[in-house]
């Protein structure tokens, strides 16, 4: 078996850090990659070098796409290069190795050779490019050389006495390795904004815990769990984080009973921030994160945000504060959270008829005198802290679903993976398979046959447990989990 190799290039901002900081960031990135890639290949090898990581795995074609996707979604990386590595030979040997990768691609196309070189050699990068280009021009049926806008770029790197011919270049996320920056607590509601804000803090290297305020809708809580789980699985680098759910129904009821209508929105946000501050203190977290954006809704004017922030001395990060809604939706689409937002069950417990846009602190404080703060205390004390990889187990405490490694003979398997993931590794089973992405499953539940046994499949088995529990409890369906071993 031949091995498959990748060269992983660090994000440019890592390269300009001081030596101790750079070393720490690189170590964290290497640890994160090992953790993520071992789910695909338990024998993965990740080697640290000063300017790159080398990733090596046995050549298993079916693992190439998920492995590349996992690396592309790991913060801290600018490029992932799939390479063929050879001992450095003479010019003809270098040209031969380039031909092995690019020969067919060059036929009838214009081309240019690009070579990056580090180490001591008796030639320059430009000389390599010129002479290898001349050999390829003579040996192949190319249309010619075009240095400014080639149809094919022959890419190589030479590091000391090793030649790397680049088969394919993939763009990474950039950012810093998750866990290299202090942790934050992100207030997440499941719409477009807060998941994008959470993604941005994860991408910047912050281990991001999730805090959800349940205003009374169970379906909403399940939806938020799903999007938090999705973000963590895709971008969280397997870092241990918490999903914290705070029951806020009593808080909402108290607001509706005793707070002036126009002030309720601002006071609700203040109550959430008070709760978040206390939970963050318990977890020794210095910063909170919200998805708020200036003037997007009435509570998000600069005046209102200033009044809301008065309840905490903790840093409140708002990554989207000056972002247009169109840009937020576009980013949500790119990172894959727009499906959750579009299908998220909504529950709005506090709707002001004429909400204030210029809250006055003294008036807000006066209104809060009518609020029984023991209710907020009870909500905080009742908060449920769950490790995010155990979210499904929390749901199964109420509804137990069976997990099987093979599909039952007369069952129907529902593949709930994202269509892109399903396309890369389609299920091939002896029983019927329905393709219903997780974000459409709830809306399709009413059309499922109550006389059929359904087995949900999601790859890792976590999200399928969550959905199966919900289908059993809320829809009365015979739902199980299909979790094949290996």
Distance between the termini: 20 Å
Give a count of the beta strands, DSSP E runs of length 2 or more: 19
Give the name of the CATH architecture of the largest domain: 3-Layer(aba) Sandwich
Low-confidence regions:
none
For the largest beta sheet, what order do the strands appear in spatially? 2-3-1-4-8-7-5-6
Tell me the β content. Answer: 15-25%
Question: Residue-averaged pLDDT, rounded?
Answer: 89
Oligomerization: single chain
Coarse structural class: alpha/beta
Shape: globular
Helix content: 40-55%
Q: Output the number of helix runs.
A: 18
* CATH homologous group name of the largest domain: HUPs
Provide the gyration radius in Å: 27 Å
Work out the count of structural domains. 3
The main pleated sheet reads as: 8 strands, mixed
Question: How is this fold's topology laid out?
Answer:
Blueprint: E1 3-10, H1 12-15, H2 19-37, E2 45-48, E3 53-58, H3 61-72, E4 77-87, H4 91-106, E5 110-118, H5 125-139, E6 144-145, E7 152-159, E8 162-174, E9 181-187, H6 193-203, E10 206-214, H7 218-235, E11 242-247, H8 249-258, H9 264-283, E12 287-289, H10 302-308, E13 315-317, H11 325-335, H12 338-343, H13 361-368, H14 373-381, E14 384-387, H15 391-396, E15 403-404, E16 412-415, H16 419-424, E17 433-435, H17 438-444, E18 453-457, H18 462-475, E19 478-482
Parallel strand pairs: 5-6, 5-7, 9-10, 9-12, 10-11, 12-13, 15-19, 16-17, 16-18, 18-19
Antiparallel strand pairs: 1-3, 1-4, 2-3, 4-8, 7-8, 11-14
Helix pairs in contact: 4-5, 6-7, 6-11, 8-9, 9-10, 9-14
């Amino acid at each position: 078996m031949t091995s498959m190799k990748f060269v992983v290039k660090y994000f440019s901002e890592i390269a300009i850090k001081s030596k101790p900081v750079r070393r720490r960031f690189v170590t964290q990135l290497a640890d994160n990659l090992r953790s993520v890639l071992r789910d695909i290949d338990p024998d993965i090898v990740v080697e640290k070098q000063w300017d790159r990581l080398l990733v090596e795995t046995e050549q298993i074609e079916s693992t190439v796409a998920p492995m590349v996707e996992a690396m592309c979604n790991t913060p801290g990386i600018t490029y992932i290069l799939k390479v063929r590595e050879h001992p450095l030979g003479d010019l003809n040997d270098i040209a031969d190795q380039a031909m092995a990768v690019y020969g067919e691609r060059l036929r009838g196309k214009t081309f240019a050779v690009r070579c990056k070189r580090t180490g001591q050699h008796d030639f320059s990068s430009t000389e390599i490019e010129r002479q290898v280009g001349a050999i390829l021009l003579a040996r192949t049926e190319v249309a010619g050389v075009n240095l400014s806008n080639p149809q094919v770029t022959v890419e190589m790197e030479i590091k000391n006495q090793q030649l790397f011919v680049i088969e394919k270049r993939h763009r990474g996320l950039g950012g810093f390795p998750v866990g290299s920056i202090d942790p934050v607590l992100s207030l997440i509601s499941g719409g477009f904004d807060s998941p994008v804000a959470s993604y941005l803090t994860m991408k910047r290297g912050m281990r991001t815990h999730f805090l959800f305020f349940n205003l009374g809708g169970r379906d909403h809580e399940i939806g938020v769990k799903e999007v938090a789980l999705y973000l963590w699985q895709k971008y969280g680098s397997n870092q241990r984080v918490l999903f914290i759910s705070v029951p806020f129904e009593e808080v909402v009821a108290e607001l509706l009973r005793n707070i002036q209508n126009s002030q309720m929105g601002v006071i609700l946000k203040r109550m959430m921030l008070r709760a978040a501050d206390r939970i963050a203190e318990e977890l020794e977290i210095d910063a909170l994160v919200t998805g708020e954006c200036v003037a997007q809704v009435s509570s998000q004017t600069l005046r209102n945000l200033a009044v809301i922030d008065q309840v905490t001395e903790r840093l409140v990060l708002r990554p989207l504060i000056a972002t247009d809604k169109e840009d937020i939706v576009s980013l949500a689409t790119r990172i894959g959270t727009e499906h959750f937002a579009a299908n998220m069950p909504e529950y709005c417990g506090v709707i002001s008829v004429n909400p204030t846009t210029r809250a006055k602190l003294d008036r807000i404080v006066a209104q809060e005198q009518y609020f029984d703060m023991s209710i907020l205390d009870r909500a905080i004390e009742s908060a449920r802290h769950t490790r995010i990889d155990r979210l499904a187990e929390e749901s199964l405490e109420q509804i137990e679903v069976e997990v099987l490694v093979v599909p039952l003979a007369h069952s129907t398997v529902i593949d709930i993976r994202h269509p892109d993931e399903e396309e890369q590794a389609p299920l091939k089973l002896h029983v019927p398979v329905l393709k219903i992405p997780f974000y459409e499953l709830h809306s399709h539940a009413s059309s499922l046959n109550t006389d059929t046994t359904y087995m949900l499949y999601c790859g890792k088995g976590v999200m399928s447990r969550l959905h199966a529990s919900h289908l059993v409890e809320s829809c009365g369906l015979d739902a199980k989990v299909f979790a094949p071993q290996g």
